[in-house]
Amino acid sequence: MNVTTAPNTPATPSRHRPAFTWDAHACLPLDPKTPISLLDNYVAGDVDYVCVNVGMDMNSVAHILRVIAAFRAKIAAHPDKYMQIECFDDLAIAKSKGLLGVGFDLEGSVMLQDMPEMVPVFAKLGVKQIHFAYNRNNSVAGGCHDDDIPLTALGHAMVRAVNNGGMIMDCSHTGRQSSLDIMRASTKPVVFSHANPKVLGGHERCIDDEQIKACADTGGVIGICGFQRFIKSPNAPEVPDMIRHIDYAVKLVGVDHVGIGLDTMPSVAGTNDFPDGVDRAYYWPAERGYGPGAGGAAVFDPKKLPALADALIVGGYKPDDVDKIMGENFIRVAKECWTA
Question: Which PANTHER family does the record match to this protein (predicted)?
Fold first, then answer.
Protein backbone atom coordinates (compact mmCIF):
# COMPACT_ATOMS: atom_id res chain seq x y z
CA MET A 1 0.00 0.00 0.00
CA ASN A 2 1.28 3.45 -0.86
CA VAL A 3 0.78 5.57 2.23
CA THR A 4 1.24 8.78 0.26
CA THR A 5 -1.94 8.22 -1.70
CA ALA A 6 -4.18 6.97 1.09
CA PRO A 7 -7.47 8.85 0.89
CA ASN A 8 -8.26 11.54 3.42
CA THR A 9 -11.53 13.29 4.04
CA PRO A 10 -11.02 16.92 5.13
CA ALA A 11 -12.53 17.83 8.47
CA THR A 12 -14.14 20.82 6.77
CA PRO A 13 -14.52 21.57 3.05
CA SER A 14 -12.28 24.62 3.32
CA ARG A 15 -9.32 22.93 5.01
CA HIS A 16 -6.51 21.24 3.10
CA ARG A 17 -5.73 18.08 5.01
CA PRO A 18 -2.31 16.71 4.02
CA ALA A 19 -2.16 13.14 2.76
CA PHE A 20 0.22 12.30 5.62
CA THR A 21 1.63 14.42 8.46
CA TRP A 22 5.06 13.48 9.84
CA ASP A 23 6.82 15.07 12.81
CA ALA A 24 10.44 13.97 12.52
CA HIS A 25 11.45 14.63 16.13
CA ALA A 26 9.67 15.02 19.45
CA CYS A 27 10.81 14.75 23.05
CA LEU A 28 8.93 13.26 25.98
CA PRO A 29 10.46 13.15 29.45
CA LEU A 30 13.01 10.33 29.40
CA ASP A 31 11.46 8.56 32.35
CA PRO A 32 9.53 5.28 32.54
CA LYS A 33 6.86 7.17 34.52
CA THR A 34 6.08 9.49 31.58
CA PRO A 35 2.39 9.32 30.63
CA ILE A 36 2.02 8.21 27.04
CA SER A 37 -1.08 10.42 26.82
CA LEU A 38 1.33 13.26 25.97
CA LEU A 39 1.16 11.84 22.44
CA ASP A 40 -2.46 12.99 22.25
CA ASN A 41 -1.18 16.44 21.30
CA TYR A 42 -0.01 14.91 18.03
CA VAL A 43 -3.30 13.11 17.52
CA ALA A 44 -5.04 16.48 17.97
CA GLY A 45 -2.76 17.94 15.30
CA ASP A 46 -3.75 15.25 12.77
CA VAL A 47 -0.22 13.84 12.92
CA ASP A 48 0.12 10.38 11.36
CA TYR A 49 3.67 9.59 12.51
CA VAL A 50 5.90 11.05 15.21
CA CYS A 51 9.51 10.09 15.99
CA VAL A 52 10.12 10.24 19.74
CA ASN A 53 13.52 10.60 21.39
CA VAL A 54 14.42 7.74 23.73
CA GLY A 55 17.97 8.66 24.72
CA MET A 56 20.87 11.10 24.40
CA ASP A 57 24.64 10.92 24.76
CA MET A 58 24.49 11.75 28.46
CA ASN A 59 21.99 8.95 29.26
CA SER A 60 23.28 5.55 30.36
CA VAL A 61 22.47 2.50 28.28
CA ALA A 62 20.52 1.06 31.21
CA HIS A 63 18.37 4.17 31.44
CA ILE A 64 17.73 4.22 27.69
CA LEU A 65 16.63 0.59 27.74
CA ARG A 66 14.22 1.29 30.61
CA VAL A 67 12.72 4.18 28.66
CA ILE A 68 12.34 2.10 25.48
CA ALA A 69 10.73 -0.76 27.40
CA ALA A 70 8.30 1.57 29.18
CA PHE A 71 7.34 3.54 26.08
CA ARG A 72 6.82 0.37 24.01
CA ALA A 73 4.61 -1.16 26.70
CA LYS A 74 2.50 1.99 27.05
CA ILE A 75 2.03 2.30 23.29
CA ALA A 76 0.99 -1.35 23.10
CA ALA A 77 -1.48 -0.81 25.97
CA HIS A 78 -3.43 1.69 23.82
CA PRO A 79 -4.02 -0.08 20.49
CA ASP A 80 -7.06 2.13 19.92
CA LYS A 81 -4.85 5.24 19.64
CA TYR A 82 -1.22 4.39 18.89
CA MET A 83 0.83 1.89 16.93
CA GLN A 84 4.52 1.10 17.25
CA ILE A 85 6.13 1.43 13.81
CA GLU A 86 8.50 -1.48 13.21
CA CYS A 87 8.82 -1.36 9.42
CA PHE A 88 7.85 0.84 6.48
CA ASP A 89 4.61 -1.02 5.73
CA ASP A 90 3.40 -0.28 9.27
CA LEU A 91 2.96 3.37 8.30
CA ALA A 92 0.14 2.47 5.93
CA ILE A 93 -1.42 0.08 8.43
CA ALA A 94 -1.49 2.71 11.17
CA LYS A 95 -2.87 5.31 8.76
CA SER A 96 -5.65 2.99 7.57
CA LYS A 97 -6.69 2.34 11.17
CA GLY A 98 -6.62 6.00 12.17
CA LEU A 99 -3.78 5.40 14.65
CA LEU A 100 -0.80 7.58 15.48
CA GLY A 101 2.32 5.76 14.32
CA VAL A 102 5.24 6.09 16.75
CA GLY A 103 8.92 5.46 16.11
CA PHE A 104 11.96 6.19 18.24
CA ASP A 105 15.20 8.08 17.70
CA LEU A 106 18.53 8.35 19.48
CA GLU A 107 20.36 11.64 19.92
CA GLY A 108 24.00 10.65 19.97
CA SER A 109 26.08 7.50 19.71
CA VAL A 110 27.64 6.98 23.15
CA MET A 111 24.93 4.38 23.83
CA LEU A 112 26.30 2.35 20.89
CA GLN A 113 29.39 1.65 23.05
CA ASP A 114 31.78 2.11 20.10
CA MET A 115 30.18 -0.94 18.45
CA PRO A 116 28.57 -0.65 15.00
CA GLU A 117 26.97 -3.99 15.89
CA MET A 118 24.71 -2.14 18.33
CA VAL A 119 22.88 -0.34 15.52
CA PRO A 120 20.70 -3.30 14.45
CA VAL A 121 20.04 -4.13 18.11
CA PHE A 122 18.49 -0.71 18.71
CA ALA A 123 16.72 -0.92 15.34
CA LYS A 124 14.93 -4.05 16.54
CA LEU A 125 13.75 -2.10 19.59
CA GLY A 126 11.99 0.44 17.38
CA VAL A 127 14.74 3.04 16.87
CA LYS A 128 14.17 4.34 13.34
CA GLN A 129 16.54 7.34 13.30
CA ILE A 130 19.85 8.38 14.87
CA HIS A 131 22.35 11.19 14.92
CA PHE A 132 25.85 10.67 16.23
CA ALA A 133 26.65 13.54 18.58
CA TYR A 134 24.52 15.55 20.99
CA ASN A 135 26.13 19.01 21.01
CA ARG A 136 29.54 17.73 22.17
CA ASN A 137 32.28 15.66 20.55
CA ASN A 138 32.55 11.93 21.14
CA SER A 139 34.44 8.97 19.66
CA VAL A 140 32.18 8.89 16.59
CA ALA A 141 31.56 12.49 15.53
CA GLY A 142 31.77 16.15 16.46
CA GLY A 143 28.98 18.06 18.16
CA CYS A 144 27.72 21.48 17.14
CA HIS A 145 28.89 23.14 20.40
CA ASP A 146 32.45 21.85 20.42
CA ASP A 147 35.65 21.93 18.36
CA ASP A 148 34.73 21.32 14.72
CA ILE A 149 36.25 17.89 14.09
CA PRO A 150 35.84 15.51 11.15
CA LEU A 151 33.92 12.26 11.32
CA THR A 152 36.19 9.66 12.91
CA ALA A 153 37.16 6.31 11.40
CA LEU A 154 34.70 4.70 13.82
CA GLY A 155 32.14 7.22 12.62
CA HIS A 156 32.53 6.04 9.04
CA ALA A 157 31.89 2.48 10.21
CA MET A 158 28.81 3.71 12.09
CA VAL A 159 27.45 5.40 8.94
CA ARG A 160 27.73 2.08 7.12
CA ALA A 161 25.96 0.34 10.00
CA VAL A 162 23.10 2.85 9.93
CA ASN A 163 22.79 2.61 6.13
CA ASN A 164 22.58 -1.18 6.42
CA GLY A 165 20.60 -1.31 9.65
CA GLY A 166 17.21 0.09 8.67
CA MET A 167 17.59 3.51 10.29
CA ILE A 168 17.46 7.08 8.98
CA MET A 169 20.82 8.86 9.27
CA ASP A 170 20.31 12.22 10.99
CA CYS A 171 22.75 15.13 11.44
CA SER A 172 20.88 17.33 13.95
CA HIS A 173 23.08 18.53 16.85
CA THR A 174 26.14 17.35 14.90
CA GLY A 175 29.20 19.52 14.23
CA ARG A 176 29.48 21.15 10.83
CA GLN A 177 32.47 19.17 9.50
CA SER A 178 31.20 15.86 10.83
CA SER A 179 27.79 16.48 9.27
CA LEU A 180 29.35 17.21 5.88
CA ASP A 181 31.51 14.08 6.18
CA ILE A 182 28.47 11.96 7.09
CA MET A 183 26.55 13.25 4.08
CA ARG A 184 29.47 12.46 1.78
CA ALA A 185 29.89 8.97 3.26
CA SER A 186 26.25 7.91 3.37
CA THR A 187 24.86 5.79 0.54
CA LYS A 188 21.29 6.67 1.56
CA PRO A 189 19.48 9.97 2.15
CA VAL A 190 20.54 11.91 5.24
CA VAL A 191 18.23 14.25 7.16
CA PHE A 192 18.37 17.07 9.65
CA SER A 193 15.33 15.93 11.58
CA HIS A 194 15.00 19.19 13.54
CA ALA A 195 17.19 22.08 12.41
CA ASN A 196 16.68 25.58 11.05
CA PRO A 197 18.56 27.78 8.56
CA LYS A 198 21.31 29.62 10.43
CA VAL A 199 20.82 32.76 8.36
CA LEU A 200 17.39 33.14 10.02
CA GLY A 201 17.81 31.40 13.37
CA GLY A 202 21.32 32.67 14.09
CA HIS A 203 22.01 30.07 16.78
CA GLU A 204 25.05 27.78 16.64
CA ARG A 205 22.68 24.78 16.68
CA CYS A 206 21.22 25.91 13.35
CA ILE A 207 22.71 24.84 10.01
CA ASP A 208 24.27 26.88 7.24
CA ASP A 209 23.43 26.90 3.54
CA GLU A 210 26.22 24.47 2.65
CA GLN A 211 24.85 21.91 5.10
CA ILE A 212 21.31 22.40 3.78
CA LYS A 213 22.46 21.92 0.19
CA ALA A 214 24.55 18.88 1.09
CA CYS A 215 21.52 17.33 2.78
CA ALA A 216 19.38 17.90 -0.31
CA ASP A 217 22.13 16.42 -2.50
CA THR A 218 21.78 13.12 -0.61
CA GLY A 219 18.05 13.13 -1.34
CA GLY A 220 17.42 14.06 2.29
CA VAL A 221 15.08 16.41 4.13
CA ILE A 222 15.52 19.35 6.51
CA GLY A 223 12.89 19.16 9.25
CA ILE A 224 12.04 22.72 10.25
CA CYS A 225 12.27 22.98 14.03
CA GLY A 226 9.66 24.81 16.09
CA PHE A 227 11.92 25.61 19.07
CA GLN A 228 11.81 29.31 19.85
CA ARG A 229 15.54 29.78 20.46
CA PHE A 230 16.41 28.29 17.06
CA ILE A 231 13.52 29.78 15.10
CA LYS A 232 14.35 33.22 16.56
CA SER A 233 10.87 34.43 17.42
CA PRO A 234 10.17 36.98 20.17
CA ASN A 235 7.34 34.88 21.59
CA ALA A 236 6.16 31.27 21.35
CA PRO A 237 6.53 30.30 17.66
CA GLU A 238 3.43 30.64 15.52
CA VAL A 239 2.53 29.71 11.95
CA PRO A 240 4.28 32.73 10.31
CA ASP A 241 7.53 31.86 12.11
CA MET A 242 7.45 28.31 10.75
CA ILE A 243 6.61 29.54 7.25
CA ARG A 244 9.53 31.98 7.28
CA HIS A 245 11.97 29.09 7.72
CA ILE A 246 10.11 26.78 5.36
CA ASP A 247 10.13 29.43 2.63
CA TYR A 248 13.87 29.99 2.97
CA ALA A 249 14.71 26.30 2.75
CA VAL A 250 12.33 25.72 -0.18
CA LYS A 251 13.87 28.62 -2.11
CA LEU A 252 17.36 27.27 -1.40
CA VAL A 253 16.95 23.55 -2.21
CA GLY A 254 13.40 22.99 -3.45
CA VAL A 255 10.17 21.69 -1.99
CA ASP A 256 11.28 18.03 -2.16
CA HIS A 257 13.77 18.55 0.66
CA VAL A 258 11.80 20.33 3.40
CA GLY A 259 9.71 18.84 6.18
CA ILE A 260 8.68 19.27 9.82
CA GLY A 261 10.54 18.30 13.01
CA LEU A 262 9.10 20.37 15.83
CA ASP A 263 11.28 19.23 18.76
CA THR A 264 8.47 19.56 21.30
CA MET A 265 9.61 19.20 24.93
CA PRO A 266 6.73 18.86 27.40
CA SER A 267 7.61 18.67 31.08
CA VAL A 268 5.92 16.45 33.64
CA ALA A 269 6.26 16.94 37.38
CA GLY A 270 8.05 14.06 39.06
CA THR A 271 9.88 12.80 35.99
CA ASN A 272 13.64 12.86 35.56
CA ASP A 273 15.49 12.84 32.22
CA PHE A 274 18.87 12.43 33.92
CA PRO A 275 18.76 10.00 36.87
CA ASP A 276 22.49 9.36 36.44
CA GLY A 277 23.24 13.08 36.58
CA VAL A 278 24.30 15.45 33.83
CA ASP A 279 26.52 18.50 33.57
CA ARG A 280 24.02 20.87 31.99
CA ALA A 281 26.62 23.62 31.57
CA TYR A 282 28.66 21.20 29.44
CA TYR A 283 25.92 20.08 27.05
CA TRP A 284 24.11 23.44 26.97
CA PRO A 285 26.88 26.02 27.52
CA ALA A 286 25.88 29.61 28.24
CA GLU A 287 28.62 30.90 25.94
CA ARG A 288 27.05 28.92 23.08
CA GLY A 289 23.59 30.45 23.41
CA TYR A 290 21.79 28.85 26.36
CA GLY A 291 20.51 30.00 29.70
CA PRO A 292 18.95 33.32 30.77
CA GLY A 293 18.92 35.97 28.09
CA ALA A 294 19.58 33.46 25.29
CA GLY A 295 16.03 33.43 23.92
CA GLY A 296 12.89 31.57 24.91
CA ALA A 297 12.32 27.83 25.06
CA ALA A 298 8.73 27.62 23.81
CA VAL A 299 7.95 25.24 20.94
CA PHE A 300 5.41 25.42 18.11
CA ASP A 301 2.29 23.56 19.22
CA PRO A 302 1.71 20.37 17.16
CA LYS A 303 -2.02 21.00 17.42
CA LYS A 304 -1.43 23.95 15.08
CA LEU A 305 -0.02 21.82 12.25
CA PRO A 306 -3.35 21.84 10.37
CA ALA A 307 -3.27 25.64 10.48
CA LEU A 308 0.28 25.54 9.11
CA ALA A 309 -0.87 23.42 6.16
CA ASP A 310 -3.72 25.86 5.48
CA ALA A 311 -1.39 28.84 5.66
CA LEU A 312 1.00 27.27 3.16
CA ILE A 313 -1.91 26.95 0.72
CA VAL A 314 -2.90 30.57 1.32
CA GLY A 315 0.74 31.54 0.79
CA GLY A 316 0.75 30.07 -2.70
CA TYR A 317 2.01 26.52 -2.24
CA LYS A 318 0.25 23.90 -4.35
CA PRO A 319 -1.59 21.15 -2.44
CA ASP A 320 0.86 18.51 -3.68
CA ASP A 321 3.78 20.60 -2.42
CA VAL A 322 2.12 21.09 0.97
CA ASP A 323 1.72 17.32 1.17
CA LYS A 324 5.46 16.92 0.54
CA ILE A 325 6.41 19.39 3.27
CA MET A 326 3.95 18.02 5.81
CA GLY A 327 5.04 14.42 5.43
CA GLU A 328 5.60 12.87 2.04
CA ASN A 329 9.24 13.93 1.80
CA PHE A 330 10.07 12.08 5.00
CA ILE A 331 8.03 9.08 3.81
CA ARG A 332 10.22 8.93 0.72
CA VAL A 333 13.35 8.91 2.86
CA ALA A 334 11.93 6.28 5.21
CA LYS A 335 11.05 4.00 2.32
CA GLU A 336 14.65 4.10 1.12
CA CYS A 337 16.26 3.83 4.56
CA TRP A 338 13.95 1.36 6.32
CA THR A 339 13.73 -1.21 3.55
CA ALA A 340 16.49 -3.48 2.26
Answer: DIPEPTIDASE, MICROSOMAL DIPEPTIDASE
Cβ neighbours of residue 201 closer than 8 Å, sequence gap 6 or more? 230, 231, 232, 245
What are 125-152's pLDDT values in tens digits?
A: 999 999 999 999 999 999 999 999 999 9
Cα dihedral 237, 238, 242, 243 sign: negative
Tell me the mean pLDDT in the region 271-291: 94
Across residues 24-32, what is the average pLDDT?
98
We report the CATH number of the domain holding residue 73 as 3.20.20.140
H/E element, 240: helix 239-253
Percent of the chain exceeding pLDDT 90 equals 93
User: Cα torsion for 163, 167, 173, 179, to the nearest 10°?
Assistant: 10
Structural domain contains residue 37: yes
Name the DSSP letter for residue 59: S
pLDDT at site 15: 77
9 inside domain:
no
Residue 257, classified by CB atoms within 10 Å of its CB into exposed (0-12), middle (13-18) or buried (19+), is: buried
Q: Is 43 in contact with 100 (CB distance < 8 Å)?
A: yes
Which candidate, 217, 225, 146, 231, places its Cα nearest to that of 180?
A: 217
- Asked if the structure places residue 3 within a domain, the reply is no
Tell me, what's the pLDDT at 340? 66
| pLDDT top residue among 275 and 3 | 275
The pTM of the full predicted model, rounded to 2 decimals, is 0.95
Q: How far apart are CA 91 and CA 1, in angstroms?
A: 9
In a domain, residue 45? The reply is: yes
What CA–CA distance (Å, rounded) separates 202 from 263?
17
Compute the distance between CA of residue 5 and CA of residue 196 in angstroms, rounded to an integer: 28
- Measuring CA to CA, how many Å separate 136 from each of 189, 282, 294? 24, 8, 19
Range of the domain at 145: 18-338
Question: How many domains, the chain?
Answer: 1
